[in-house]
Amino acid sequence: MGAYGVHPTRYGNLSNDHLYSMFRESIYSRLEENEKLELLQESVNRDALEKGEIGAPEVRFANLAANESGNAVNGVIHVNRDMAVSGVQTFVYNGQTVHHAIGDYNIQSLNTVLHENTHCFQDQVIDGTIIIDDAQKTAEYQANGFTASVVLQDGRYQLGSQYLTDETANGYYCYYFQSTERDAFLFSEEKTAAILSDLAERYGTEPSFEAYGKSVAATGYEMMEREAIERFQNPDFERDLNQVLQNQYFGTNVPVDKNTETAVKAEMIATYNSLQQQITQANNCSAKEEIKDMQNGANMSTNEGESVDDGVDGGMDI
After folding, report:
1. Picking from 214-218, 252-256, 286-290, which range would have the lowest pLDDT averaged per residue?
2. Helices (H) and strands (E) in the chain — how many of each?
3. Which residue from 156, 155, 77 is spatially nearest to 112, judged by alpha carbons?
4. Rounded distance, CA 107 to CA 205, Å?
5. 312 pLDDT exceeds 60?
6. Which helix (H) or strand (E) covers residue 98, if one does?
7. What is the rounded (10 degree) CA torsion for 137, 139, 142, 144?
8. Which residue in 36, 162, 140 sits closest to 87, CA to CA?
9. What is the pLDDT of residues 103-119, one digit of tens each?
10. pLDDT for position 289
């Protein structure tokens, strides 16, 4: 269960209307870091309760890469500190550190925790912690975890990852519309839109609301779906992608578009190889650190021995 549990906040007694009103730019920007963290935690607490999760994930700020808003691991949601606290993207370009202001960082922070909590919900469905009525969705999630399967591609059997991480030319569409990411993107977008609509109706719009709306129009679910259908010339791209993963995981042979199948299998293989490379690199770094620690320990022992020798020599001189 990891860090799932009860994570009380100072905002626990607020109504939903009052809680979400704190994501207005005029309020959120004035909150201290710990207040922002508790606001995000309380939003996750309520979302987890609505979803029927057992406990709620813990929310923490983390120093993530500029292109990573958040992630979820073992019941812990990590949110990019620069984005959520300071409203900036920080990256190095041509040797210079660049700080890019995020005009809708208050809304992006809300969207991020809703997205990541959807992954936490999916994890509990996959491992059987909770049972949902939708058997099809359960099967899709089970077939989309960090497991491997044998993939037949171009007459060769190779290992492929059931979770896709955007490694090939068509990889981003495979990543975006695999079932776990598809539902995380869609749910967080829809719930954020509902919250913003209610806030705008009660308080009027703000620049951050408009900035968020423009980003969704440019890169939101509907736009991505149109692009994917056009690129693959397959109106059932999302369905076929997830059926390929289920065919691989459950050993079924439900017919799918062949071009989509080829693209998904290529991404499965590329993802598996990339993940294995990352594991190897991590193990190498760990081994190097262990060797370094051993060398430092040996040096310390030598230095301590030299210190004893000096003491003996001094005694002899006396």
Report:
1. 286-290
2. 12, 7
3. 77
4. 13
5. no
6. strand 96-101
7. -70
8. 36
9. 999 999 999 999 999 99
10. 67
